[in-house]
Specification:
Among the domains are: 192 residues, Rossmann fold (3-Layer(aba) Sandwich), CATH 3.40.50; 104 residues, no CATH class. Helices cover 23% and strands 29% of the residues. It is built from eleven helices and 25 strands. Strands 2, 4, 5, 7, 8, 9, 10, 11, 12, 13 and 14 form an eleven-stranded mixed sheet that branches. It has a four-stranded antiparallel sheet with strand order 15-16-22-21, with no helix packed on it. Strand 19 and strand 20 form a beta hairpin. Helix 5 packs across helix 11. It is elongated and about 80 Å long. About 3% of the residues have low confidence.
Amino acid sequence: MSYRVRLACLAVSCLLVSLVTSARADVKLASIFSDSMVLQRDLPVPVWGWADAGEDVTVTLGDQTKKAKAGQDGRWQVKLDALQANAEGRTLRVAGSNTIELKDVLVGEVWICSGQSNMEWALANSLNAQEEVAAADHPLIRLFNVPGHTTSPVAKDECPGNWQVCQPSSAGGFSAVGYFFGRRLQQELKVPIGLVGSNWGGTRIEPWTSPAGFRSVPELKDIADQVDAYNDQTKVVATSPSAIYNAMIHPLAPFAMRGAIWYQGESNGGEGESYYHKTQALVNGWRQLFNPELAFYWVQLANFQQPTDSPEGGDGWARLREAQRKALNIKHTGMAVIIDIGEAADIHPRNKQDVGSRLAQWALHQTYGKQDLVPCGPLYKSHKVEGNSIRLSFDHVGSGLMVGEKVGLEPTKQVADGKLQRFAIAGADKHWHWADATIDGGDVVVKSAEVAEPVAVRYAFSMNPLGANLYNKEGIPASPFRTDDW
């Protein structure tokens, strides 16, 4: 072999070695991991990413070290043992062919904040925005926002985003409801709070729901079959079932989280029972993804549009709110009632402070065991006919029922000698009449001179039940309800 040929062969060999070396993948973490993040306390914590197939990866945090080997697809995962809350930033070290060091990692409580525009609505556009943003300096609250609005027909492994310390420059563009929820949790729990925002205005519930969630509810078999037929060539849009989940929720899993808050429903506003089934699917799917015991708290839709004077009601979002209330039979869920803080002319009420606080009320009571807090306002429990009246009983009466008045951000005030509004009553003829309603201990007694033999009651059962004023003395409104199924 000539010198020139040998030299050419050597050059080719060097080039091939160079190409193989450059093709070797650096160890990489999933996008949910970055500097300044919060890891969930008291639960095993998955840490995962990608590397060359068969590559050994070591993950270290504090005194814990865990090892994994990347699979044939390059994915690796370890599970850190349950961690205690820690407000002192530490370094998470991931080592393989290269080393990654994430700084300022805290341990506390992590929640995902999701839904449509009322969850997406930024702190900078809420009530008292200038003052609220200026005061949003909370180094123990960390924010992760999934930017953009993206869809996919198949589950994606990655999405953009990074953790930021909560301060005016980062909080102003974050979900106002999420921020106010997290702020109250941090103030009362005294541990770091991580908030993961993934939301998209104008979206329905179906695109946020996983295929597994649809499969878990027999009533949704048609949708389950539809999403099970997707492949990577299927064309999907923002309304397609599972399409947003695939792009904006699945890439976050299986990040350890305590719970979810959800503000959505306007885009499904014409539904009733079907939304109940879809809520079951959403919760089931996310629990399979993040945490079998994932707490799940949603916002019942606010009062909106011009009120009507029909005692029958049933218009607009009345049945959607009923489906939201019915979904409370799902384990470890809760619902923030906000029919007293909506705006007739604006589908985006600016008072997000009370929304976030009422969601936090549920979490503090039910998730964190603060039994001294009543989680919500009165929820209809049962009724019985007593002659020409009907007696209604409620859960979550707290320290008592009252006629209340809510103005702006001020605490609800009890109205002395106030009269309950928005109660309607009907007899067997199913004709509805406005009723006189009075508080009797922990019950409400409803009657009308026009209905001698009543059989059913409705309360605030309309699109905008303006004037509905039944509260508990903790200042939280009662949910709309009806005792009939007509």
